Amino acid sequence: MPKNRNTFSSAVAALRRRATQRAVHAGWAWVQRTGAVTAQRPGRLRFGAIGQDTKLAFPLGTVFGEPWIRIGDHCIIGEQVTLTAGMMPDLDLGPDPILRIGNGVVLGRGSHVIADTTVTIGDDCYFGPTVYVTSTNHSYDDPHTPIGKQWPRMEPVEIGPGCWIGTNAVILPGARLGRNVVVAAGAVVRGDVPDHAVVAGAPARVVRRWDAEAGWQPPLRTPAPVPIPDGVTPEQLLALGELEG
């Protein structure tokens, strides 16, 4: 009989744990939905602009200088993404925006965009997780003063439309990326990068470029993806995925 009682108690405890887990997950999902920032529900944040269907996921990273931050339409800003304009909160940065984020931009979880001077991210750019973009770098001119106490150097950053920035990449002050640039994971980018280039390494260098006559050089090692035929509905794609699974 004691064995049966122990079995019953264990079953009840397991049911309670599962019920508690479901309640915690449901509660956290509610917190995430409620804490997300949109144009309709900006909370305490007062951005210079935040576009239609744009959402900043909760929990937020550090956000300040938002009157000088303009975010376009249909953007997805992941959890714990830092967006800052100016070196510290509560500064008057003048009449013009400092950080401009275009339409259709995706910033991966844990990324940082630090705009002490102007940073521009073009339309349809996609960032992987923990990308770091900064317009400011430490200076170390004076060998007798701690580096953190020396006045930093600032240069504008421009990321052209259609770029893909891989996980853990770093975009340094003064970087200017052209259109449809691929930045490999972990790359450290400075200076100018031409349109339709792939860069990798630290410091990053061009490892592949597209030429209008010769195509990609060096040639791509994998075939191009097969495009989805016209007229195929999302429901058909889902059904195909279930069939292949």
Give a structural overview.
The chain is of the alpha/beta class. It has a single domain, classed as UDP N-Acetylglucosamine Acyltransferase, domain 1, CATH 2.160.10.10. Helices cover 18% and strands 27% of the residues. The chain has two helices and 24 strands. The protein has helices at 2-35, 234-244, and strands at residues 49-50, 55-56, 63-64, 69-71, 76-77, 82-85, 99-101, 106-107, 112-115, 119-121, 126-127, 132-134, 136-137, 153-154, 157-159, 164-165, 170-171, 176-177, 182-183, 188-189, 192-193, 197-200, 205-211, 215-217. A hairpin with a 4-residue loop joins strand 22 (197-200) and strand 23. It is globular. The mean pLDDT is 91.
Compact overview of the structure:
18% of the residues lie in helices and 27% in strands. It is α/β, with parallel strands linked by helices and 245 residues long.
